[in-house]
Amino acid sequence: MEYLLTSMTFLPLLGALVVLALPRDNATLVRWTSLVATVPSLLLGLWLFENFDRSVGTMQFVERYSWIPAFNVQYIMGVDGLSVSMLLLTVLLSPLCVLASFGIEKGVKGYFALFLLLETGMLGVFAALDFFLFFIFWELMLLPMYFLIGIWGGPRREYAAIKFFLYTLIGSVLMLVAMLALYFANTPHTFDMLVLMERAPTYARGFQAWAWIALFIGFAIKIPAFPFHTWLPDAHVEAPTAISVILAGVLLKMGTYGILRVCYPIFPLATQQYAFWALAALGCWNIVYGALCAMAQKDMKSLVAYSSISHMGYVMLGMATLTPQGMNGAVLQMFNHGTVTAMLFLLVGVIYDRAHHRNIDGFGGLASVMPVYTGFVTIAFFAALGLPGLSAFISEVLVLLGTWQYSQPLAITAASAVVLTAGYMLWMLQRVWLGPVNEKYVALPDLSWREIVTLAPLAVIVIVLGVYPHAVLDLFGPTLVALGDTVSSAAPVVAQAALR
Amino acid sequence: MQAIRWIVLLPLIGAAINLTLGSRIQRSAGRAAVAVFGSGMALASFAIAVTGFMRLRTLEPESRLLVDTVLPWLHVGTLDISIAFQLDPLSAVMALVVSGVGSLIHIYSYGYMDEDPALWRFFGLLNLFLFAMLTLVLGDNILVMFVGWEGVGLCSWALIGFWYKDHANTAAANKAFLFNRIGDFAFLCGMMLLFWTLSGLGHATLVFRELGAVAPLLEGQLLWGVPVVTLVTLALFIGATGKSAQIPLYVWLPDAMAGPTPVSALIHAATMVTAGVYMVSRLHCLFSMAPVTLDVIAVTGAATALMAATIALTQNDIKKVLAYSTVSQLGYMFVALGCGAYAAGVFHLVTHAFFKACLFLGAGSVIHACHHEQDMRRMGGLRTKMPLTFWTFLISTMAIAGLPPLAGFFSKDEILWKAFQREPLLWGVGLVTAGLTAFYMFRQVFLVFFGESRAGASVEAHADHSAAGAHDDHHGHHAHEVHESAAAITLPLVLLAIGALTAGWLGIPSALGGSNLFTEWLAPVFAAGGEHHAEAHEGLELEYALMAVSVLVALGGITLAYLVYLRKSLSADTFSRIARGVPYRLSFNKYYVDEIYYGTVLAGTLALSRALGWFDKVVIDGVVNGAAASVRAVAFLGGGIDKFVVDGLVNFTAHVFDSAGGALRLVQTGNINAYVYVLLIGVTAVLMAGAW
Amino acid sequence: MDLSNADSLAYHVPELVLAGGSIVVLLLDLFTRLKARLGEVALLVVATSVLAVGFGAGADQGYLFNRMVALDSFALFFKLLLGFAALGAIWMSTGSRELDGEHPGEYYSILLASTVGMFYMASATNLLTAYLALEFVSLTSYILAGFLRHRARGAEASLKYLIYGGVASGAMLYGFSLLYALTGTLDFIELGHRLSTVAAVPGNGAILFIAVVLSLAGIGYKIAMVPFHQWSPDVYEGAPLPITAFLAVGSKAAGMALLIRFFYPALSSPAGDGTWIALHGVGWPALMSVVAMATMTVGNLTALRQQNVKRLLAYSSIAHAGYMLMGFVVLSDAGLRAILFYTVVYYLMNLGAFAVLLLVVNQTGREDIEAFRGLAWRGGAPAAIAMLIFLFSLAGLPPFAGFIGKAYLFAAVIEQKMWLLAFVAAANSVVGLYYYARVARAMFLDQPLAGDPEIAVDLSNGLLIGMLLAGTLVFGLWWTPIVNFADRSLVFFGN
Amino acid sequence: MSMTTVGLAHYLVVSVVLLCLGLYCVLTRRNAIGVLMGIELILNSAGINFVAVSRYGSAGFDGQVFAVFIIMLAAAESAIGLAVVLGIYRRMRAIDTSRLTTLQG
Amino acid sequence: MTAADAMFLALAATAVIGAAGVAFSRHILYSALSLMVALFGVAGLFVTLSADFVAGVQVLIYVGGVLVITLFAVMLTQGIQNVEVSNRAVGSVAAGLLTAGLFVVLLRAMSSAQWVKPPADVPTQTSTYGIGNALLGQYVLPFEVASLVLLAVLVGAVVLTRKETAE
Q: Please, what's the b/e burial string for C316-329 (b: 16 or more CB within 10 A of its CB; e: otherwise)?
């Protein structure tokens, strides 16, 4: 499996090209081709999951080729536990999203081609080990995302799309500046992340500080951390279902992934310095703030979007603690949030497809109209509110445990969100699914087989990981321990200019 | 010991099958199939629990511990948690009660829910509840217990809102879950504090059987100047108040009566609400080290017992009376725990499970017979129509009133005795409560079973609405004749009544010549906690005297109820007019606690939420994007805000940039002279800046 | 190698071909019936010239015509680029509907002459040649801008251009005269040598600064940098579209070449480690970095509200001049390399955008954003996708060549730790995206209205767009050839 | 600078005056031909400088040659300028620059 | 004050007054005539600088060529049709301030500058001979290029003024 990561990353792109070559009028063929195009990556992902050596925290399956020698840009792909879990999440969600997109009628070819391109971008981000390559993949996702929201989105899609685009770009340009500064901080100049990590102890404190902040803002916009989050509700509300799923399920993770992949090992000193305010306090605030905002929403999707903000707060908080529990919890939360929120968005999409609106007050009693649907809703909602036995509980409790060691007041504040989360989740459940049946929606059909197939795997993952979290936890345990050590043990450089 | 897991897993399997395939089974194989399957799982679980219990009995008292490790669960850093179950005397007792009473209620449910189309769901949820409760009880560490702890909350939510088409039911369900969550939050905090303190001491563990050994290490550990163990236990106790409906988190329990009656019996009387009691007993090694917490528990318990009893006096809903009575009885248990008498608390838990379950089921039987009428003022005279129900109900009422030799007498008396030893004032409160209990319970009996039938009588306007018409579908059936319920309903009643009659005999104190088997059985568990069970022989006379007093008080309460409600020689109005009716109104309106909570906490949170939602939409969107309020004001004055929001200028920054762009466009007048101006101004400006 | 007039001729083939071609085209127009084929003839001429330039690559380097012009890799680079710009412009002209029947002989003749002027701009090493070349390009540009006489906007553009250019080149001339007065020489290199002593004389600082600033006016107006930019949107809008493209790409590149050639040898000296030291006492790098920031900001902000795509691209090209100036002010070889690199990718993507615009203008007769409404949904999907890629490349998004170009510029700036400049440029990239996205939005997100014509891609334009697109895509992922080429082209006299 | 002998400085002053008057002319004139005249003044002022420096500074003919080129190019510029103006006049019957503002923004 | 000085002053005054006339005159015809005066003044200054050839070119090309075309254009556009005779001036105050500012800046900078000094011994040549030599020797490339420029301008001017007969 020499080209494992490369094939995994670029097979969807190949699929996109095939899709573009298909006849325009045969939508069914396009749909199925796209679905098939996501499968090889999924299989490779599963193979990777199986064959990844879980006992070590080092990079595996590394591929390294020279790309632009003049600029010392290389093509380096490789995975450690952190990347594997995210790759896995991506390849799992992609086929489901394609399946969930079968209802798209307009510009089918374009939609699926863009989706597959997006998948390549996402996989590339998680596999790239050269900063320049990373950046290119990072930006590669912007375009498809812009169009997927902008063309296939809701009524205010243009606004949402451009807002998403601009916000992300602001982060990107800051990242670009920091990346180039880092490039010049090393002699010989390099973008090789592994080398950059090795040299981490030689970067001066001041340089680390501002570069960290610049990168952090870039990543924080993606997470999205307060106060860079306002693009998220808009983007989610307007995006088509599958795109919301990808957005919440994978794209948000890139922010936290980036922090762990770049900020932590390359700027350990700055991480130490800023972890509290930038990550822990902000994360904690995200948790509570997102939950409170979610409570005030009237649109189901926007509620779920704010719940994402809240849940991503756990990730930030957990990773800030640098404790094994906190960091493992954070990464596990990334994975779990990916599956749980994917379910939530798929479920909201189901009702939107039928009723063509998402107003929480506009429904009622769907439980008796669509019992199977309600079953999945219940699983997803209770997973989202952190019910023990379901996956999100594990990660949240780990994060909270880690946080307690780090700062008790933060842990208590964060833990208080369990009440708020339960509040808005149940409140929505009550108003939409319970109560007297709304006469308008008596005749809504229950889930179709296609919808069940998209939801069931996620539900299974949610339950299985609640009982046996080590299936995923083991992947990144050693990686995170090493990462935590790097950051904890970082010491300032003595009398040595990092920038030449 | 591989079998223990099946105590837990069988109900889970039952739940999984019934919840996923149940509706098909019910459609193809009939309602009975679902019920039999569900009940069968519960019974099987009970059977295994019995074998486990038997197995324990064969062991030496000190080694009565069976552990079944199922799966390593969480191993991160110092945290090492497995999914494991343990059977020791305490958890065995609980498991027996839970699965035993649970099985009976399963059977009862088949009779009670005879008209409900979603029987499969009901049985599925009951099974799921059993699973969760048994996990709570049998879990060998705090985290597994927490799984059950929240799991029962989930089931409680689902079952209270079982008839989800009624908005009130779902509201009650949510309320229950949220109040439980508040407790869970505290529980979580306590757990984390405990874990990290122990971890810091080099003994990171949350496993119960190890805690006993490491607990003494906590001595002298401080956090924020307070002993850690006190903080831990207080936090855990707050968790317990949520689950076990104690002040200040009790308010959900009465509302929870919106659920079907078997649910009230199972969850909100016999099992789930006692989880707090079980938890405190389970962790007695910690609680015993925290005298402050014990005091808090005792006082809270006593206050809850008294307060709930006073509220129960005036309620008209048959189930609400029982609900407040439950709250009150749980208060008793906490008094016992607060006094360090864990065994006594658990003993009362067990007896209470029998008689309260029986009472609820009896009430259910009545409600069922009266076509879902729950207002006692519309009942009466059912004694003859439903003899079996009446007798079982009466036995249980006598048990709860503490009349010897029924179960309640022994357990309550032991608590009172321990309370007296600890602090006579506690005993006093307990005694008053006992009297009130006897009064309102017999008030219920008299109103429901004696006198003339008042079915169809009009009730005052201020009747309690929240539970009055639990179930709209069944209105309009009033004209039917009331008759005794089916065997599926009466059989459990009888069995439970027998329990209510005899369960107390397990713990006849030595003062009455008994051997107090129950305390002895639990002794190995509580030995580590240092519970004193050296009987004070010199206080024997005192003990007799106290027993007599409490029996007299109970009889007094019964007599008063008789005078007011049966003989009517005393008018209830006389009492309600005491002190201008203030006490009556307070009691009738449950001290307005709901209203206060709603007005402060809930309204505050919602207001904050709305404010932040607005803030997020307006201010953050504005500020983040770098434009101050002034810019917005300008945009607004310019009449541009609409265009701006609607027409999709990305955000306020865009607006600023756009304005700048607009301004720059104005410079581009198209007049060539002006262009040359700009050129020259540019040059001159640069020259001036550079030359000087 | 310092050749006299007669010897120089052998090294002067590209210019001779162009100049000859210019006359031949005119004659063909007058005396033959080849009117419809003149575009192809002009293409052939430029192609020959470009080939001639190419054959000169790697050969001897030196001064020609008594140090009037230089023959070095730097000049070669720009001549190639300018040749390609002319090729593109002519190609577009042949397919442009608005130029149909508009005196093709004169048109192509002047276009070729203009190209010669640009070649001289890129290779001038003397104030006189520089001025002459600049005026040459200006004069021909005035004519070309107003070539469509039936269009009022064309004449207006031409007049404005002329007046503005007259003042700007007058100012530059005055600046040159002051430099001459201070040093007594017209030769760039000699100027550089003498200025270092002149600048050391107390009291000369102010006049030197004035001379530099005034000189900048003429060159700055060619590359449309603030505050000498105002002519460009009007002229771009009024001129025929291929000419707009030619001005935006060629004229700007030639100006950039002259700017570097003038400022680097004359106003700074190499430090030996790949960086340059500015002439002491004249703070032109600081001045220019302010100018660079102002240029990109003004260009981007003003572009935000444009409705006319041609005009929008005009402002965008102002902004891009600002980006390129970043490479200019860092005073390092890396910066120069970045500029060279950027001119190449800028050529590809900007010409590409104009080519798509031409397609739309040809078929709708309109050049505002509305003309692009729903382009992707009315048969023009390939064109829309191409436009999208060009625009987002202009915006500097990976994986397109524009990003790499911008990355090099940023890298040069960051290497010299000019954080403010980097920050302003970063902010500008974001603003820039917004208006490019507006066009993208019109093409993809908006639905066509009834009556919007179908857009078909014809072979000629399609081929041009395709080639530019291929370049934009390929160089976005594999840009080693350009970077090597740019690296080799950094050799110029005074270096 | 002394007033006794005419030197470079004197010519420079004259050229500065001409430059400024030319610029003033360009700024204020609304008649396109007037503006073009202003440009001629500017070019002339530069020409004076070159010739003066050629005389006083270096002995070569560089400056004078430059001046010849300036004159030549100025003529060319006028030719085009006037041609454009005539073209505009033919169409619009006006050559007022303040009315030539269809291209703006 | 020597005769040369007087000559300089007179010619400078002529040039400046002429230029002022161009700049301030209200009538476009007067402007044109003032321009002629100014150009003659400058030509005279060239003579004082021993640049006879340049002066000759100035008179021939400028006064003889440019000015005649200019007058022609003025007549074509205004004199004959009499549409708008004025040479309207707008914003004179601001423009005055700006140019005055520039003037002051330039003069101040010049006052402290040290101009280039002539080399020690200079062989003098007659201007015309020298320029001729230079144009056909050192500056032959610009000279040739200039011819190309003029050709292009010629063609362009023709195109721009040609009546649209074809259409």
A: bbbbbbbbbbbbbb
